[in-house]
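User: I'm designing a mutation panel for SENP2 protease and want to avoid disrupting the core. Could you give me a predicted structure to guide residue selection? Please restate the sequence first so the numbering is unambiguous.

Assistant: Good idea. Sequence first, for numbering, then the predicted C-alpha cells:
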Amino acid sequence: PLFQAMESEISAAFASGEPEDILSRAFKLTVTREDICTLQPLGWLNDRIMNFYMGLLVERSKKEGYPAVYAFNTFFYSKLSSTSHKGVKKWTKGVDIFEHDVILVPIHLRIHWTLLVVDLREKTIKYFDSLGQKGDHICKTVLKYLEEESKEKRNIELTASEWTLHSMGTEEIPQQNNGSDCGVFVCKFADFISRDKPIIFTPEHMPYFRRKMVWEIIHQQLL
C-alpha cells in the first residue's frame, strides 16, 4: 500500500496542476512542477533538480556513519574554467572545504552532465562520464583550484604530486544507452559515492531512479 501511495503521488506530480506550482522548497531553491517534469522518462534534468538533489546528499552526509560531503552547484565549474580561482573564491565564504571527506562537482558541458569527485581522504580526483569521455583537463583545473583555495584559505601548500587524477573508463562505471539520462547518472554516481558504496547500478535502473527522485525531492528525504 505504501508503494502504491508513493506511485500515485509521483504520477500526480507529473500530471495534475500548473507548470509553475511549487512542489518543494529547500537549500534556497524552489522546485516547480515544470522542474519535476524533467524527471519524466527521457526528460533532460535541469540545474534546479541537479542542485536540489546535491543538497539532499549533503544533508544526508551530516548523519552518523556517512562521509562528510560538500557539493558545489552546477554553475561552479563553468565559472571556474572561465575566470580561474579569483572568480569563484567568494563561493566558499565561511566554509573550509578541506574539512570534508568528499567534494562533489556536478558539471554542465553545454548539452551533457558529468561529475567530478574529490576525495580528500585519498587525495584523488576522479571524473565520471556516462558517455565515456575523458576529463583529464577538468581534473587538472580542479586540482589547481584546490591548490589556490588551500593557499588562500588555510595558508597550506598542497603538493600536486601527491594527488591522483583519473577519468573513469567505460569498463569501470555504467554507461547511458540514450541521449537523455546523463543527469540521472550524475545524481546516482554522487549518491553511491557519498555513501562510500561501489557503483553497481545499470542503465536499466534509470526509469526507477527517476520516479524515486521525484518522491525524494518532494519529501526532501532520500529513501
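For picking mutation sites, this is relevant: The first strand starts at residue 22 and ends at 26. Residues 136-154 form the longest helix (19 residues).
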